[in-house]
Design a protein that fits this description.
0% strand
Length: 144
């Protein structure tokens, strides 16, 4: 008997079968092993429909492979023109990255942390550092 209790093939086959509960059947058939997901994209795209209801925007992820040092460069020299030449971005992109992007996000973060710390900004070292960063960026923004 091919799958009998004493069959050597049955023992071999049972050891080779991938066990999975969260991963979809088709994803498991492609050779993905068990419920160990490689990254957030793999988890979202290959999870069974009834297990979790998430999409790509519901898991906060920082994309480290596309990080640019534009904010560090701007804090070092404070010049949008150098920022454009060093990082290969246009004037509009540089302004949007620093002023519209990073600076506004830091202001929102300061506001949120202020709510969490009951508005007592001077006692929290993180909020103090954030305030200094915002002031530094505001000063450099006025110079440009």
């Amino acid at each position: 008997m091919f799958f009998g209790k004493e069959s050597g093939f049955a023992g071999f086959w049972i050891k080779r079968v991938n066990k999975f509960k969260a991963r979809s059947l088709f994803s498991a058939m492609k050779g993905n092993v068990g419920d160990n997901f490689a990254d957030h994209k793999d988890a979202i795209e290959n999870t069974r429909l009834g297990i979790a209801k998430v999409d790509m925007n519901s898991i906060p992820v920082i994309q480290t492979e596309q990080v640019n040092s534009y904010i560090v460069d701007f804090l070092i020299h404070g010049d949008l023109k150098l920022l454009m030449t060093d990082n290969g971005i246009s004037n509009t992109e540089a302004y949007q990255l620093i002023i519209s992007g990073f600076l506004e996000n830091m202001k929102m973060l300061k506001h949120a942390l202020g709510k969490i710390t009951s508005g007592n900004d001077k006692q929290d070292v993180v909020v103090e550092a954030l305030i200094e960063l915002i002031e530094e960026l505001e000063g450099q923004k006025k110079r440009n």
